[in-house]
Amino acid sequence: MTSKTVRPAPEVAPNLLASHLAILGKQVKDKVTGFRGVAVSVSFDLTGCIQIVVAPAVGQDGKIPDSAWFDINRLEILRLKPAMPCPDFEAGAVAEGKQGPSCKPPFPKMPTRSN
């Protein structure tokens, strides 16, 4: 009977994880459909998929359209400056589970649509 050596995750893994999380808050466009919006959530699935929830802008009628899921490699970043500050998932209250969705970061002022 042979024993298997358990190897630690590659050194690059934390950097790759951070690069996937860096899409949060950015304006993006799906390369296939042209769907545009802000990346509001990242999901790492057990099957290996990395998917992003994209929330589109409020419609001309004032209604909030449905968000949609996209594979990360289908998205093009349109603007590098995030729509709002992203939480720190590596250290601090959010990372420690002491601050959650009910404690959102302050939003300086509500965006308005100019005609």
Secondary structure layout plus pairing:
Blueprint: H1 13-21, E1 27-30, E2 36-44, E3 50-55, E4 68-71, E5 75-79
Antiparallel strand pairs: 1-2, 1-5, 2-3, 3-4
List key phrases describing it.
115 residues; mainly beta; five-stranded antiparallel sheet; 24% strand
Short characterization:
The protein is mainly beta. The chain is built from one helix and five strands; from the N terminus they run αβββββ. It is globular, with a radius of gyration of 18 Å.
Amount of helix: under 10%
What integer value in Å does the Rg equal? 18 Å
Order of helices and strands: HEEEEE
Mean pLDDT: 81
> Which sheet architecture does the biggest sheet show?
5 strands, antiparallel
Structural class: mainly beta
- Number of DSSP E strands: 5
Strand residues, percent: 15-25%
User: What is the overall silhouette?
Assistant: globular
Strand neighbour order, sheet with most strands? 4-3-2-1-5
Task: Enumerate the spans where pLDDT stays under 50 for 5 or more consecutive residues.
Answer: none
Please, how many helices?
Answer: 1
Distance between the termini: 73 Å
Oligomer: single chain
Provide a descriptive summary of the structure in words.
- With 115 residues, the chain is mostly beta strands.
- The protein has one helix and five strands, in the order αβββββ.
- The protein has one helix at 13-21; strands spanning 27-30, 36-44, 50-55, 68-71, 75-79.
- The protein has a five-stranded antiparallel β-sheet, with no helix packed on it.
- Strand 2 and strand 3 form a beta hairpin.
- It starts with 12 loop residues before the first helix and ends in a 36-residue tail after the last strand.
- 8% of the residues are buried.
